[in-house]
Amino acid sequence: MRAVDGVDLDIRRGEVFCLVGESGCGKTSTGKAILKLVEATDGDILLEMPEGEARAYEDVRQRPDDPEARKTLDGLRRKYSVTWKESLPWTVEQALKSAGAFLAAVFLAIVAPSLLLAAVVEPFGDPWSTIGLCVSIGLILGLIGSLPPTRLSRRTRVILTLLALGSIIVAPISALSLHRALVGDVSRFDVGAALATPWTQELAAMLVGFAFGAIAAGGSSSLLLDWRSRSEGMAGIHMRSIRRRLQLIFQDPYESLNPKQSVYEIVSEPLAVNRISTNPGETSALVREALTDVGLRPPEEFLFRFPHELSGGQRQRVSIAAALVLQPDFIVADEPVSMLDVSIRTEILQVMMELRTRRGITYLFITHDLSLAWVLADRIAVMYLGKIVEMGTTEQVIGHPMHPYTKALISVVPSPDPRHKVERIILKGERPDPSDIPPGCRFHPRCPFAFERCGWTAEEVADQLRSLKAGGMLATASGVDLSDAGNVRLSMGSGGPDALVRELNALVSERRETLLPLKGIAAVHATNGFVELSLHASSEPPLLEIEPGNSVACHLVSPPATVSESLTA
Amino acid sequence: MPALLEVRDLTIEFRTKAGIVHAVEGASFNVERGEAMGLAGESGCGKTTTALALMRLLPYNGRIVRGSISFEGRDLVPVPEDSMRAIRWKEMSIVFQGAMNSLNPVQRVGRQIAEPIMLHEEAEPEASFKRAGDLLELVGISRNRLNDYPHEFSGGMRQRVMIAMALACNPKLVIADEPVTALDVMIQAQILDLLERLRRELHLAMILISHDLSVLADTCEQVTIMYAGKTMESGKTMDLFTDPKHPYTQGLVGAFPDIRGPRNMPEAIPGDVPSLISPPSGCVFHPRCKFAFDRCTKAEPALTELSVGRRAACFLYPQVTEVPPRPIVITEV
Prior knowledge:
The complex is a heterodimer. Chain A is of the alpha/beta class. Chain A is 49% helix and 11% strand.
């Protein structure tokens, strides 16, 4: 099942972008995919891309066969996409590295324990014993080095400290064992004697050990890094640091807050999880600030309350505070007010809009309520069955809708002013099943303006003819079914082929404006005992820019390149 | 000829561990034959309680303290439960809130629609099922689906089944409690369209309960606005929405964004709904009202007729009288 299919949208910094549509149209899935809460099967979510590079991205994406364009595309995706997965073929270098790591592992498993034991029982006694020590330390350092930094500051500091500590340990061990091997006496430190001593087999073995340790460290760390970036994608590494800046406000404040946690715990948890603040004083100050920002004043009064002690509006404020405490740049608000009473709803919206002006937060506002989109949004995208059918500025989309679906949707939104009555376009049926998407334009079975090329299928036409037959029409046909090739086939009644063809043509030209599936019939032929219908070719309307900033996916608005064939007998 | 339904001074209380909840106090409204009356207000204002009281379906801890519900001139409050059974569903019926959860999931819908027909009209099962099929077709569902289970229907279709069920015994009045809440806007339009068609064809009177004023503005002739169990204002839809008198109605109308109006951010009503166990003194709305003055905190405004068919309970209008203080009745808990 494809819940969201080829959605392209750009959200500009500081704007309120509304995603509207009926339930099940994929608006929530889109929101979740943007935050990587569900993994998108394909496509890119590009973050903070400068306009020039965004245009370059659009440009190279049009030429998938050009190897140069592919390279640029991969580079751009590697740089900005949170869904980017590194998928490079194996190279000689990588093969060597993994072989090295394998050897190191074998060594570690078989030889290292005994050498390590020797090193512990009689330290520096035997040059061989240092090999185990050095390799072990090397591998530990390698492992630490392979852990990528999630945030640059702290983790990097820890790694550098550990590496420094490691070299402090390794250096004296090496110096001491070297001295011991050369001079044979630890109590007397004599560089001259050490230099004068001829190199022995033990000494060579020890140096090999050091080299082995270094290789083990480097090889294992780069291999582990490689493996991680392969298995979770680079995004798995990036995402944790990005997550702080992308936040989500949930729909139902009664379900999204843990009833066993106090307001303080709920709001401070993101700080702890993202390791922003572990200092209690700092945490408390940040929590208070977030609560004040969402209008829970004074914050002290709310800090130690539990969700059941709050009203619906206050709960939603707490869940906004929990998103806000991380100082995000971008918030996906999934129906944030649909569960709230009207009088509280506006306050929440005002809080959100105030934060936008004060902190420059960008919102992706997901809602089914078009009147809310009308007052809030800068730009709107209307979704139907996982595709965007119309996108543009609020004035364009709601003020002058072009897609039949948008028109219908707007016409049925009730208005609180009884003077504003409009003709409602009520679509028949409910939203179709996303696991069985109609061919052609996916909206055509419900569209009141559907015409020839919208994608009528043989089944739809046959169903229409059957219901006409059941209503007493088509007396010259004895049955309607589908041929093996998938065409509509009418078996002849008593009148012979000509009568049937004539009746069909008359019926089509007379009723095609009311019974839209009849528009799908391109031609009627009589073939050995049956009358077969051929249907118009159809295509899925692409989302095309009709006027600057306004895109619509509809054949009516963007006429197809080829002229539709006329009805022939 | 009396109005089909005349509710006067209806007062309902619930006894709870925390104290007595004054769920509805002094609700008064009329519903004429064939007319749709909208009951609006935020959650907890007593809309559903009023509807349940009309049907005599209040939970065990709720009771009608005062007031009358006269249906075709006959007061239903003193009617014993046995006779109430004859009125319920045959005279007036209800479409419960939450169509998703109101149907029995393990019974075929045909049976669920036929059941009230068999019970109330003592019809034969065969005739009842035939009528259930007719009802399904009336609400726009093929009769072939009589043998389906509720989970095989979508939300909008389940709501249609609920409506078919409410129509089972040809009632004169149908109460629809939040019939389109939680439905998609297109399905919402389909259901409202259906209700309007049924009302016209069957000459039904309807009480439409909704928190969404825009839904009522589109469908009802009369609207009553409730707040914290009290009636704030009532009148003809056109008058009430274009010229709201009560500050609460003004706030509520202003709180809805209008897709066909200017792009203004709606206004908020500051504050929270008061507790119904210890409601504020005087006018219940005064703590949130921007026009409140001295008198509002001390005395309670009575629902007074301002012009023909237009009533409001607010001291901003000089002709509004005070509710006389009620003697304190000590009830044993």
